[in-house]
Protein 1
Amino acid sequence: MKKLISMLAVLTLIFSVCAFANAEGTTYQVGILQFVQHPALDEATRGFREALTEKLGDSVVFTEENASGEVPNCATIASQLVAKQVNLIMANATPPLQACTNATGDIPVLGTSVTDYQAALEIELVNDATGINVSGTSDLAPLDRQAEMIRELFPEAKTVGLLYCSGEANSIFQIKKVEEYLTAKGIETKRYAFTDSNDLASVTQTATECDVIYIPTDNTAANNTEAIANIVIPAKVPVIAGEEGICKGCGIATLSISYYDIGWKTGEMAYEILVNGADISTMPIEYAPQVVKEYNAANAAELGVTIPEDYLPIGE
Amino acid sequence: MNITQLLNQLPGAAAQGLIWGIMAIGVYITFRILDTADLTVDGSFATGGAVAAILITSGVNPWLATIIAFLAGLMAGLITGVLHTGMGIPAILAGILTQLALYSVNLRIQGLGTDLGSRANVPLSINKYKNMLVSLRNVGNFSIENPIWLMLLITAVLIGIMYWFFGTEYGCGLRAVGSNQQMARAQGISTGRGKIVGLMLSNGLVAFSGALMAQYQGFSDVSMGRGAIVIGLAAVIIGEVIFGKLFRNFALKLLAVSLGAIIYYLVIQVVLWLGLNTDDLKLLTALVVALFLAMPYWRNHMAARRMKGGKPVG
């Protein structure tokens, strides 16, 4: 027993010495908390990592964690990152952003893939900045232009079905806005909300009664594009998607932002904070640098939709 | 892999474990005392969070909000109880039906006051509501605000109340209902009403825990209860496996449940600390819980083999 205790003591000493040794050259510890595994969020994380690695090379060490879609895990991992005393946390999606903001008032938290920071944090933005240790990038694509796209591609459409997951605050926000724009154009809209991937198929089936379906940047839909495609394509109902990943799976066209780009932008913001000492509480929330009109060639051909010249095909 | 880092992360695991421990005590009441599998907890956990969130954002005192969340949980348990005893639906199905219904109810609760009428997520930032009972923010400090102290106090008070209640005549009647329904009925105990009360109490505790969790993590989300029954059952079983031989007293058995929840969260923390791919987190958690569950079976098997002189029984 005594031997065991002394061995443990020695090991602890060795480990703590190693920890001190690491702190010699300025290595930045950056924690990443991603909500769930799917292409858009993965791209954002990839952009973030590559931006920082390009600027800092070996002096940045990432701790990348994924909550696997479970809300309680966000709190667990957030407190773990704070206990680790990382220099900066990148929160990918809304629940991680909320958990990290509550876990720490000092460590800078950069969010990404979050549509509405005001709603997520219940905070009034001043000059687009939060005033607390939070900033980041938003994946909000211009919703009015998306509504216009529906009009442009399907001028005869009378009803648009709004398909989304009722458990995602981001989706509800976008649905409300798109609904307003479409109603202003005189198009009738109807909401189709599913609770999770289990009833997604049956709700989508009901939604095919409309002329066109619109899907916002919804995490659950993005994870299940195959299932949606299997319903809408045979039913010959075109889908306008809020982002490229969903469009690639089941959509016709999208006004796409690149998640890689906003991830990259977040990485640049991280560099400003870590190296140049920028004050995160005054950094404005950044939006996607560019939006591109894109279409899915295969689905468009199958449904017989003619796509105007200024759209780019999504590379298969 | 720094051991001091693991030690730093332990308070977080302990705090979360204590909060889920209260939920696990609720699960213990239905699972062990009433001998029913109650799946309502996935829904009532989120209901507790939703009710507390809505009240706190409207300016209600967090203590009062948490207690009202408990009352909401009582309602949820009542519904399951009525479905089971009044409509003859098997307990498991009754729980599932209530859980299903609660999803929509929770969306509506969180949507009160908004123009859309339903909301998936309600933020409860510690920056804004400084008098919340527990918060993720303070788990690293040694101060009085550290959620661990309050959680230890709440757990102790709760176990005390449960110990008193199940020692009363009515409480013993409930234990009889779970132990041997026919005998209880023969003794004149109303088993239907007993089951309803048990379900109400259990879901009340679960909602109470949900309210604390929403304040702890800083937001209430309609899907925060998903998988709660698994954590609750795991905590109950882990507590029994480890402390079963030591703790015979009822109060200590409840304590074992709470400790089981803490151990469960410690396991998750170690898995995260080991730096393993978090994609595998669910698989590893399942493996660990399976190992815990298998231990009593293996123990009995080994004991039987030894008794029979090397020949395995069955």
Protein 2
Amino acid sequence: MRKIVVSEFVSLDGVVEDPGGAEKFKHGGWSFKFRDDQVPKYKMDELKASESLLLGRVTYEEFAKAWPSRKDDVGFADKMNNMHKYVVSTTSKKLDWNNSHLIKTNVVEEVKKLKQQPGQDILVYGSGKLVNMLLKHDLVDELRLMVHPVVLGSGRRLFDDNAETMKVLKLAESKTFPSGIVLLSYHPAK
Amino acid sequence: MHVSLDGFVAGPNGEIDWARFDDDLVEDVQALVDSADTALFGRVTYQLMESYWPTAADSPTASKHDLDHSRWLNPAPKIVFSRTLKNVHWQNTRIVKDHIGEEIARLRKQPGKNLMLFASPTLGSTFMNLNLIDEYFFNINPIVLGKGKPLFSDQSEMRRLKLLGSKTYKNGVVSLRYRGGS
């Protein structure tokens, strides 16, 4: 049984749009204003504990543009490029990025099937719409928010502003980084 | 103030029953309150408070927190920032209608302890835009409300804060303390 781990860069006002700066958002790249040597190590360890990415279409398309040409000393890009990518989309036809698989219909059932396979974590980055769907169907095993010390004032937020139900979670871990980023990690409450 | 994971300080009908307290957290909040000698409110929060605190300590079921907070809050000078509120019925309270920045600047110059803005998200966002906030205390609750009254609104510009500290409570609340910035 594999865990689904949602890992997000988020501002204090809940914005998750374009932390990396590839999407032309007016505050794009905001996460790079907060750097220390512990965050990259944390992100590397997190990636090492995973063997697949589960992504929505928008995040997938940005990643598929950016990652294939990247290289780094610690092997982050290699891992991103080699691992399995499961893409939830009703409109995508062709997936160009190495090792990508399309989930077009019966998303909940398909994700449940993925979870039932043995192996390492399934990691979700970004993918706001998908995350809300996963939360709604209780498919998220861990929700990790890297809360950045900034109020952006505009931009797409992680959680649906008009979700029908409230969700109680259970705090799993909190950790402070030198840059002022706080990791808040949650499990489902039940 | 208490904040949900999705950034709300109250539910769509003003619900705050999801906010978690435990003895440790109440003690820390009380210490924070004791560092101040004046309470500031927006109208909505003020009216909620006014309907509860003047008599909270008289109830036979009053908790220790009710008693401690009443002892501080009832005699403390209280200021409500509102253009529409006409009358107040709580001791030592006055209404400020306008010129928020000037009023705060005047209060700051007076000797004494800190000025504490309680909840009041709309006024808080106004204060932020006027660069009036020195420190923020958020108690992040382990809940996604789905809808409600947002903590931050009408923020026109990006604003960096400085993390001063964090503390994790047994009930799953993480309190985050920031210094204001621009």
